[in-house]
Write a structure and sequence with these properties.
This protein is 44% helix and 16% strand. Strand 3, helix 3 and strand 4 form a beta-alpha-beta unit. The relative contact order is 0.16. The protein is globular, with a radius of gyration of 17 Å. The protein has one domain: Alpha-Beta Barrel (TIM Barrel). An 8-stranded parallel beta barrel has the order 1-2-3-4-5-6-7-8, surrounded by 7 helices. The longest helix has 18 residues. By secondary structure, the protein is of the alpha/beta class. The mean pLDDT is 97. The structure holds phosphoenolpyruvate. Phosphoenolpyruvate binds next to strand 8.
């Protein structure tokens, strides 16, 4: 049985003050969503503050990115072992904003996935097609290509300790959400691709949906057979909204 995971990607938002308030709200309501795992992803500079506020609670934390390298002359980058120092449980790799705005290739994303595993931090691998790709009918081949880069480098067993997030790019931050059936179809496709390599691993891998998920649509999305939670952007910046999404899947 897969437990839902509800993840808040705060992107480049917040201040020390607003983050303290947001975490307070999340901590107060977390007990009501005991049936789901919760994790938040602050900007790098606030990870120490988040660790301090969440240690001893049921809410996990992680970062939105990491370097593929363990150390060295990589100005501006943050390495896996540094995240380990802050006891991160998860790290997002291959978010579409990283792929599009910062040119991260499938191969680089795979190396970042490997870097996370090396320090025992669970990668949340983001995959998903653009609107143009959906319109061209190539959604499955795009997602398969993104997934294959990781499977070829790290192998199927890696997904015993990893999560996948299907995030159609056209639904991220646009207010436009995939229908439950559209999302389910891609989730089932992803699980089938994993099952071709190892059905046991496929059956236990959590696959999250991301893309304008909010309390008004999260219940029906998470009710689908292969949707095991959500990766939430905008709605995760409000504790009440974030918790309402998490509750809707329980
Ligand atoms: C995201 O950034 O991963 C995301 C899904 O954003 P939003 O919920 O704002 O669409």
């Amino acid at each position: 049985m897969r437990r839902n995971l509800v993840a808040g990607n705060w992107k480049m938002n917040g201040s020390a003050e607003s983050i303290r308030g947001l975490l307070q709200g999340i901590k107060e309501g977390a007990a009501e969503v005991a049936a789901a795992d919760l994790v938040v992803f602050p900007p790098f500079v606030y990870i120490g503050l988040v660790e301090q506020q969440l240690t001893g609670t049921s809410v996990a934390w992680g970062t939105q990115n990491l370097s593929e390298h363990a150390s060295g002359a990589y100005t501006g980058e943050v390495a896996g072992p540094m995240l380990q120092d802050f006891h991160c449980t998860y790290v997002i790799v291959g978010h579409s904003e990283r792929r599009t705005l910062y040119g991260e290739s499938d191969e680089m994303v795979a190396r970042k996935f490997a870097a996370a595993r090396k320090v025992n931090i669970q990668p949340i691998l983001c995959v998903g097609e653009t609107l143009e790709e959906r319109d061209q009918g190539v959604t499955e081949s795009v997602v398969e290509r993104q997934l294959k880069a990781v499977l070829d480098l790290e192998g199927i067993e890696a997904f015993n300790n990893a999560v996948i997030a299907y995030e159609p790019v056209w639904a991220i931050g646009t207010g436009r959400t995939a229908t439950p059936q559209q999302a389910q179809d891609v989730h089932a496709f992803i699980r089938a691709k994993l099952a071709e390599r190892n059905p046991t691993v496929a059956a236990q891998t959590r696959i999250l949906y991301g893309g304008s998920m909010k309390a008004a649509n999260s219940g029906e999305l998470m009710a689908m057979a292969d949707i095991d939670g959500g990766l939430i952007g905008g709605a995760s910046l409000d504790a009440k909204d974030f918790l309402a999404i998490a509750r809707s899947g329980c």
